[in-house]
Design brief:
The chain is of the alpha/beta class. The protein folds into two domains: 6-76, Transcription elongation factor, GreA/GreB, N-terminal domain (Helix Hairpins, Orthogonal Bundle), CATH 1.10.287; 79-154, Chitinase A, domain 3, CATH 3.10.50.30. It is built from three helices and seven strands. It has helices spanning 10-39, 48-72, 124-129, and strands at 6-9, 74-77, 92-97, 100-107, 118-120, 137-141, 146-154. Strand 6 and strand 7 form a beta hairpin. It is elongated.
């Protein structure tokens, strides 16, 4: 796993901790019960229920490990708390490209959802916007072309 920092909001951190607790307690019990029940169906080498339960267990343990690793490198940021002079993780910004204006919030990769206007600080646009000010123009390379974004407002 990467040793890079992962930025996350208080809400995102709470959600990760809640998911981890659920997986380590309730989900582990449910899968253990499924495995025990599937063992009753006979020959384990030809037992689809047993194989499915083991696969679910493997996926769950992978996610637990992923969250544990993520929590070790998490840096908390305050949602909406930003220096109005420059863009940082947690900043909400209005940009204009061509005749289109958009509002984005810069978040950590775990909370990114471009359809909701939350872009990762690790994305090409997020990276380009970091540490910029109102009036700056950033040039973001996409697979098909470069797009120039004018920074209109930091909220």
């Amino acid at each position: 796993m990467s040793s890079n920092k992962t930025y996350i909001s208080e809400e995102g951190l709470k959600n990760l901790k809640d998911e981890l607790k659920f997986l380590k307690t309730q989900k582990r019990r449910e899968i253990a019960d499924r495995i025990e029940e599937a063992k009753k169906f006979g020959d384990l080498s030809e037992n689809a229920e047993y194989a499915e339960a083991l696969s679910a267990q493997e996926e769950m343990e992978r996610r637990i490990s992923e969250i544990d690793e993520l929590l070790k490198r998490t840096v908390l940021f305050k949602k909406g708390k930003s220096d109005k002079d420059y863009i940082d993780v947690g900043s909400t910004v209005e940009v204009k490209f061509g005749n289109v204006a958009k509002i984005f919030t810069i978040v950590g990769s775990e909370e990114a959802d471009p359809d909701e206007g939350r872009i990762s600080n690790e994305s090409p646009l997020g990276t380009a916007l970091l540490r910029k000010k109102v009036g700056d123009v950033v040039d973001v390379k996409t697979p098909s072309k470069n797009i120039k974004y004018n920074i209109i407002k930091i909220m």
